[in-house]
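=== Structure Prediction Worksheet ===
Name of assembly: unnamed complex
Input type: mixed (protein and possibly other molecules)
Chain count: two
Listed entries:
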Amino acid sequence: MISKFETVPIRTKFFTKGTSILAVMAGLGILGYVYRLFFGLEAATNLSNAYPWGIWKTINVVAGVALAAAGFTTAAVADIFHRERYHVLVRPAILTAMLGYTFAVIGLIADLGRYYNIWHPIIPSMWQGDSVLFEVGMCVMMYLCVLYIEFLPTIVEHYRDGVRLPGLLSCLNSLVESLLEVCERYLIRFISLFIIAGVVLSCLHQSSLGALMLVAPTKMHPIWNTPMSPVLFLFSAIAVGFPILIFELILISRTFHRPPPIPLLSNVARYVPVLLGVYLAVRIGDLTLREVWPNVMEGTFASFAFIFEIVVGVILPIILLSRDRLRQSASWLLVGSVLVILGVIVNRVNVFLVAYRPLYAVSPYFPSIIEITVTVGLISIMILIYRFFIVRLPVLPRASQLQSASSEEPKPLATQLKGE
Amino acid sequence: MRKDRRAFLKVSAVAAGTLAAGAAPAADYRRVDNFLQTYGVLVDTVLCVGCRKCEQACQVANGPCDRDPELLLDRSVFDTPRRPDECAYTVVNRFADPDSPNRSYWIKSQCMHCNEPACVSACIVGALTKDHRGPVVYDTWECIGCRYCFLACPFDIPAYEYANPLDPQVRKCTFCHDRFSDRGFRPACVKVCPGGALTFGARGELIDLAFIRIKQSPDRYIDRIYGQHEVGGTSWMYLTGTDFANTSLPEVIDRPISDLTETIQHGVFKSFVPPIALYGLLGLIMHSLKDTKREAGKNHDKQV
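=== Predicted Assembly ===
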């Protein structure tokens, strides 16, 4: 992603009061993670034979991957459909996706019983083409590589002419520099190929995540037990792509005391009710065709969880974000996008935990303190790294440019024109 | 010995055929012809007396956990329902018959060794495989410990060694498959069963045997073999004298669990055509829009 904008690091102090709190939560999360590695799943989690999948898989992996969909939706809009005005969003989107997927894998490692075998699906003799999980695993792995490649320009641009490794490592300076040069000369030239591959891989595994629970049709609550699940997962992932960016950019503007780029965000937010509307229509059509409305009205925890998921996470943001006036306010944009994000997380939890009805469950699953600590800790580390990257690396455009980003097609920079 | 038994079964089958001729339409279990030669076990819960000797024998033969075999005959455990777990590959539970209050049924549960196992289809690395002789076999070395097989299993059989931090394994009934080629082989539980409730043999012959029993005493059995069609058929099959709804045998579908996911999966990846087509389409869009946008951009620049 060669940015058509001048992207600059936000040079500011890394540690503040907020980051210290995050650092504490991150530290606790690391402690919990290490505890799990040494003492095992029984000591660290509430997982059981009845509930083999907990919040690490559901929230860190499945919901994490859904929220990282910003990477491929933005790349598709800005680079494939060439809506240049959204190009400013590409780098933060790629960064989000890169961190989201990386931490999905880190969360997955905590959950795997034999985590040291995580590389097994790569080995051709162990390929298992019938398995939905195999497809998800392979696509996620390949997409992770694509994301690292897509993020390379940001790093190359920053360090190209000045690799200064500290201390003993400084003897590697010239080596790293020539490596970066090779990256710039070859990888980045073919980056379009990777961008398209990223979109294809994302469509594949975002939908396959929805197919995962289809392998348990006899143990699923009827509301979520639908062959449309892959389509619903893909549509909701696409719908949550922009809200996560709106959420991030408004939080960034608040933390760094920059004016929020309202014209750009409001422009992007217009798409959200449309995308969510399509998702809602498919969802309602599916429920109607399968005649499961009585289950929605049954008054159980599952039915309330569904109503919450749809009303708070889909219908409410459609109403909020389809109003011009509310889209001009940073606070309402924030509320709307948080609701969409919440709706997707609740949906994933519903599909994988609430809807799952094991035969011999003694008591329902609720995550242990350590499970929650690790989940929160990993998210905190992710936020800290995000902050580190936007403070140190050229991810975001200048505040003024972000402001004017959507009012018209961007003027390419003089430097970039020279290059062409 | 096995020869004798199989001969017996065959004779019985012929006898049954003569008996049943004309009385009932031919059973349609031949639908799944592929799985009549695989081995299976018929669990006749009408003959089971709940002695728990099968649990004990399994523990002695395979038991991964140190448990006093004597304690395994204690019948007080029937007060609370149990499930197979990492220390017990098979457990017996008692169920009251709502129609006759004095009658109890004991249901032995263990891996059903499905004909088309959902766990095998779900496993990300192929650590679970279906042996052509019948057993569903687990390979510790390949397993990554994702526990997706737990979600897939319609009978909730696999159990995990959660307490083991470094080398946890998925545990379930092995069908004693490591001794399958022994002469006169029968699984440990079948060998020990004193009441004749467990019969080991070729699946097709077991189905014949089951129908003989149903025909011979229609008052004692309900006219259905659990496992004949359930999830595409299972190696372990059950006869009861009460509706299956009164037992722990779950209501499942008749087609293999993995049908739907494999249809979707193979549809999407049919010779990789859909992903490649999508790639091509996006490439085309990217390329064609690029030119128009660039033109527009140039004009825009000129105007400025």
